[in-house]
Amino acid sequence: MLKDPISELTNATSGKSIASDYVNIGQFTGLNFYENSYAVIRQADENSRRANAPQSASEFLQAVALDRRFAEEVVARALGVFDGQLYVWLVIRELNTDLTRSLFELKSAIEQQSHGEFEIHVEPLGHREIEELMPTGFILA
Amino acid sequence: VATASEHIARGRRNEEVAASLPRGCADWRITVTFYAAVHYVESVIAGHGMRSSDHRSRQSYINAIRELRPVAIDYQTLANQAWIARYRADYDFNDASVQGEVTKTCALLGKIKTGLGI
C-alpha cells in the first residue's frame, strides 16, 4: 500500500506538530522594544503558519499535478523537512525561469489561501538521474 | 549595522560586477545578480531599523514588510536559480542552450528594483 507522504512527514517530525514549539521570549532579549515585539509577533505567526504547512504542501502538489503547464515539465516531486521547514523539492526537465516563477506564484497563492507556509525548491534535471538530485531523507511524492 | 543607502551602494556595485564578468561566467553572473537583489531587499529592511541574519530571516521579512511583498515572487525565483548556480557543479550555465534562461533570470533584478522603487 502506498504511504501518504504528508502523514509520513508529520510522523517524521518526531510525532509533534511543527508548530508546537512555544514562542521563546528569552531568545529575543538584547533587542530594543520595537524589535522585540516585532520578533515575538513574527515567531507566533510563523508557528501558526508552520502548523498548516503539511496541508498547504498537499494542496500545492495537487495543483501542480492538475495544471497542464507543469504536467510535462515537472518530472519528480519530493517532500522533506530541512532545518525545521517543510520542503517540496521539484525537478523540472530543463532550466526554465518562467516555469520556476510560476511555481513560486502558485506556492504563494496556496499559502495565502490555506495559511500554511512551506518552502519549494526547483531544480533542472540536466544530465542527472532523478534519484541523484533528491536530498537525503526526502520522500518521493 | 549598514544603512539603507549603504546597502543600495553595495547592490549597485554588485550589479556593475555582474555586468563586467567575462563570457563563461554565467553562473557567477546569476550569483552576483542575486546578491545585488539581497542588498536592495536589505535596504528596505534597514529602513525599518532591522537586518536579516540569514536567507531564512530575510524571507520572513519579505513576507512581513508590506513594501517587500510585491517583489517576493521575483526574489524567490532569483534566489532559487542562484542556488542552482552556486551548488549544481554538474550544470553548465555557459551552455548556449541555456543563455536565454540566464538572461531571463538576471532580468528579474530589474523587476525587483522597479518593485522597490530603486
Strand count, sense and barrel status of the largest sheet of chain A are:
4 strands, mixed
User: Quick one: how many beta strands of chain B?
Assistant: 0
Enumerate the spans of chain B where pLDDT stays under 50 for 5 or more consecutive residues: none
Oligomer state equals heterodimer
Describe it.
The complex is a heterodimer of chains A (141) and B (118). Chain A has 141 residues and is of the alpha+beta class. Helices cover 48% and strands 18% of the residues of chain A. Chain A has a four-stranded mixed beta sheet with strand order 3-2-1-4, with helices on one face. Chain A is elongated, with a radius of gyration of 17 Å. The two termini of chain A are 14 Å apart. Chain B has 118 residues and is an all-alpha fold. Helix content of chain B is 70%, strand content 0%. Chain B has helices at residues 4-20, 26-47, 55-64, 72-87, 99-116. Chains A and B meet through helix 2, helix 5 and strand 3 of A and helix 3, helix 4 and helix 5 of B.
Write the layout of secondary structure elements.
The complex is a heterodimer of chains A (141) and B (118).
Chain A: H1 5-12, H2 33-51, H3 53-66, H4 68-71, E1 74-82, E2 85-92, H5 97-114, E3 119-124, H6 130-133, E4 139-140
Helix pairs in contact in A: 1-3, 3-5
Chain B: H1 4-20, H2 26-47, H3 55-64, H4 72-87, H5 99-116
Helix pairs in contact in B: 1-2, 2-4, 2-5, 4-5
Short description:
By secondary structure, chain A is of the alpha+beta class. Helices cover 48% and strands 18% of the residues of chain A. With 118 residues, chain B is mostly helical.
Characteristic terms for this protein:
heterodimer; A: 141 residues; alpha+beta; 4-stranded mixed β-sheet; 6 helices; 4 strands; B: 118 residues; mainly alpha; 5 helices; 0% strand; globular
